[in-house]
Amino acid sequence: MTHEQVLEAWRRGGASRDRVLVELSQEDVLEWVARLVPGSVEGRRLAATLLGRSPHPADALLRLRELAADDDRYTRDAAVRAAGEILHCHFNEAYPLLGAWRTDANPLVRRAAVLVSGMAVHPLGMDRVEPLLRLLDPLLHDRAPEVRSAVEGVLARAFFPSYPDDLFEQLTLWSASHDEQVLWHVATVLGQAPQAVARKALIVLRRVALDGRRYVRAAVARALVRLAATCPDAVGTELRRWLDDPERAPLAREALGRIGDELTLPGRTPVRSRPAG
């Protein structure tokens, strides 16, 4: 197929797109990528997708690192999916290479490292939990909005459903950090904990709540509001305790204000925000 025929087949989508991917993956993938990337946006999208089928992980990830920072959102998304496929199929070889993405000057590449780690999460892949969490660890300090949002989403929606106990243990360790961005992540992700972990999450939030910085305390308040929707009994009991603690009472009142200023437990009096002083 010529360059023009390849792009035309790709643009048609559906089965035509699948056929062109199969055909090109049987040729020299990297050579095709070199021809496609300098051209149109569609060419870069095809190149990114095709790289996920490359038998040469190191070379493919080198090109995907560039495409993960492309101006086109769909190209970036395709690059993330392709890198995820490579990490899944060539974990031992790809893992250290992805580690280098974490220090890239472009936040879109750092964001891609986070998203790719989430794609490697699988309930049966217990041997990958520790290395994947290590991959994410330095990115919890990253204040770039793109990275911060990706870290929260991957931890809450990929790691928690698949590795609830392992992630909770890691969040507990991270809660000892003095970095406010790390503590923000701890609180925000614990607020999305599955019900089986929620009571333990409140114990960690109790400690994080003592941090005096507004950024962290606001995250704790939001976490309590979220947990109250799924575990009202546990949150109500915890907030009663906080209201009797001068250091935590202001935060408890803020959370109660967001919940609706009243949290009723079966057979008990409602938890109400008490006036300061």
**CATH class category label of the domain at 9-120:** Mainly Alpha
Strand residue content: under 5%
Helix content: 55-70%
Average predicted confidence as pLDDT: 90
Structure in words:
With 277 residues, the protein is an all-alpha fold. It has a domain at 9-120: ARM repeat domains (Serine Threonine Protein Phosphatase 5, Tetratricopeptide repeat, Alpha Horseshoe). 70% of the residues lie in helices and 1% in strands. It is built from 16 helices and two strands. Strands 1-2 form a two-stranded antiparallel ribbon. The longest helix is centred in the middle third of the chain and has 18 residues, at 145-162. Residues 264-268 have low confidence and may be disordered.
What distinguishing features does this structure have?
single chain; 277 residues; mainly alpha; Serine Threonine Protein Phosphatase 5, Tetratricopeptide repeat; two-stranded antiparallel sheet; 16 helices; elongated
Write a concise synopsis of the structure shown.
By secondary structure, the protein is mostly helical. It has 16 helices and two strands.
